[in-house]
Amino acid sequence: MTTPAAVLVDAAAYAVAVQTATKAAAAYYATGESALDDDAYDRVVRGIAAYEAAHPDEISADSPSGKVAGGAVVGDVPHTAPMLSLDNVFGGEEFTTWAASVERRIGRPVERWSVEPKLDGLAVAARYESGRLARLITRGDGLAGEDVSHAIGMIAGLPDRLAEPVTLEVRGEVLMTTEQFEQANTLRTSHGGTPFANPRSAAAGSVRAKDRPYQVEMTFFAYAALPLGPAASGDDLAASLTELPHSDVLTLVAGLGVHTTATTTVPPRTVTDAEAVRVRVEEIGALRAELPFGIDGIVVKADAAADQLAAGSGSRAPRWAIAWKLPAVEKVTRLLDVEWNVGRTGTIAPRAVLEPVEIDGSTVTYATLHNPNDITRRDLRIGDHVMVYKAGDIIPRVEAPVAHLRTGDEKAVVFPETCPQCGSDIDTSEQRWRCVRGRDCHVVASISYAAGRDQFDIEGLGATRVVQLVDSGLVADIGDLFTLTREQILGLDRMGETSTDNLLAAIERAKGQPLSRVLAALGVRGTGRSMSRRIARHFGTMELLCAADAQAMQRVDGIGGEKAPSIVSELAELADLVEKLRAAGVNMTEPGATPPSDDPTPTEDGEPAADAGPLDGMTVVVTGAMTGPLEKLSRNEMNELIERAGGKSSSGVSKRTSLLVAGDNAGSKRQKAEQLGTRVVTPDEFAELIASLLTDDGGGGDNGGAAEADR
Ligand code: IVH
Among 408, 558, 608, 708, which is 20 to 30 Å from 470 by CA? Predict the structure, then answer.
């Protein structure tokens, strides 16, 4: 679908549009952030172009038309060859017309098209001298960029040293994967900074930033390479770059150790006609939501060097390549209200209520607003037009208000003065506000969570029942659940003998849950299910865990210097509750874990050796729907099983993955595993592999499956 151009009725509207577009381009190229979403920017630029076509003598010198980077000028390191931009098409028809124009120009059919994802990050040129990474430069205005060599070392996929001592320039995109983006935001907010608005601006800001007290990781994907200066004698490899087809250049670069999209689920493919291009574009588009990084389109390039040469380049963009744009993942909508929700640990978080907007294939009605300070810093007002970002797994987030669309009727956001849940005071001393009663504030939420399937797994204890127990004064924390008597439960409304006995039996079973689940049930901030398992395996017993200081806590894989002290202090806060659980007979050990001792026998990864299991040393990923004996298992239960069998569970397929369990409707993870040559098994084959850990009933029993084996 082509974005309609803005209609500029007169010279004044034209002048405003030129100013809006220039400002947006300058902001975008300076910080990666802009108050205009891609669609809106394209609309304005097309409107400007249409006005200029009709009024050629009124063209302003400031006009972004035909200029690289919309006229924004940044940086002073000259590029060896201009770093061009790309022209856009928005659909199949437009593409076919464009492809026909290329073929007319070169006077023959294009030999092959290379089709590859358009990575949504920031373009950089990496100069390698004799195989060593010497300099990193941003695109800037395409002719000269900024030296950002200080970012070397923070970018995965851009090695310090190549496999061969060649002198060349690799060009590509620096971006943040979803995971890197979440990590960067955690780090940034813990240093009191505003969260990054989206992965693109996070990467753009981080590449430029100097002297930050923290370092974030980014990822590089190469999409081109060229010789750098006169090729040294014997440097045939660099010299060949201008003659090789584009697809061979990418293979060569990957062979030198630089990251390309070849290892992703959307590798570059070459095809021979426009119809095959369309099919591949659709395939990549369909995988977009599952990708661990953002793409904003698909780039189609004439692959053969001779075709590229014959088509030539304009001052802004090559004539042999085009960006086939996908719908934007940033949209402007209205902020209708701000809600304040109290989490189970007492954190009070604002949430934006939006005029529903369709983004990346789903309707977005709510978006995160991080913390109260952030609302003030961004000067958000109710009624504002706001830019909202959502891509793949990333939780929708409000980026910024579009200030120039304000009417004056916008209203200030009202901040709560007391806890919206219980009316107590609010502790505002940290970025994240918290009810002074902490986890006692929202007892119903924390007890319901603790009773959930992946924690204590107490069947029959839904939220309504928890409300009843709390309201009747029988339960004030999770510890009280384990001392409930038959009479007390029978005394509740709508509670018969059978349901009472079933609930009591479920509570009794819950006492045998492993330490990892007890820990997850406690809801220590910053430790989800998988971190709870890692902690439990590391310490083995609650006693050793509670005795750990920050230094000891940091020995757990994945716990850094920032997290360790907060886990330690929170566990100290929970000491009474832990004691209550212990006194009630709740298990406090992790089966199969070997607690750390003064003289541990470390395994390769530094963890003390545990008994060898059938998945010893293997990294296993599960995807698709489980069937057969594993049918009823949640993802968490599958991960528990993998870890109990000696393996490591992981959510993404990579070179390190040893085994993929692919159930029904397995999507891109299966494709990726196949490309990497990773072993893929069905759920049935996997069940056989770990048969020794499954119960007699095959783990698919009524109340939770294989994870029951240890109870
Ligand atoms: S080729 C002369 N390939 O998109 C060819 N660019 O909007 C120019 N981009 O400046 C670039 N993924 O920063 C190319 N696979 C890809 C790309 C890609 C992202 C960026 C690049 C470029 C911008 C143009």
Answer: 708
Tell me, in angstroms, the distance from the centre of ligand 1 to residue 170's CA: 13
Helix residue spans in 257-345 (DSSP H)? 274-287, 305-311
Last residue of a domain, one of 278, 297, 325: 325
Nearest to 102 by CA among 300, 283, 285: 300
Query: Rounded distance, CA 70 to CA 21, Å?
Result: 8
The domain containing residue 64 runs over which residues? Answer: 11-70
323 C-beta closer than 6 A to ligand 1: yes
> Domain tally for the chain?
5
Nearest C-alpha neighbor of 442 from the set 518, 341, 520: 341
Please write the tens of the pLDDT for every residue from 8-59.
Answer: 888 888 888 898 888 887 776 666 566 677 677 778 888 888 888 888 888 8
What are the C-alpha distances in Å from 539 to residues 167, 461, 536, 587, 595?
50, 30, 5, 14, 5
Claim: this prediction has a pTM higher than 0.85? no
Q: How far apart are CA 226 and CA 312, in angstroms?
A: 16
- Amino acid identity, position 40: A
Q: What is the chain's mean pLDDT, rounded?
A: 88
Check whether residue 321 and residue 338 sit in a common domain.
Answer: no
Q: Within this chain, do residues 317 and 351 fall inside the same structural domain, yes or no? A: no
Compute the distance from residue 606 Cα to the ligand 1 centre, in Å. 42
- Ligand 1, residues 118, 124, 284: which to mutate, most atoms within 8 A of Cβ? 118
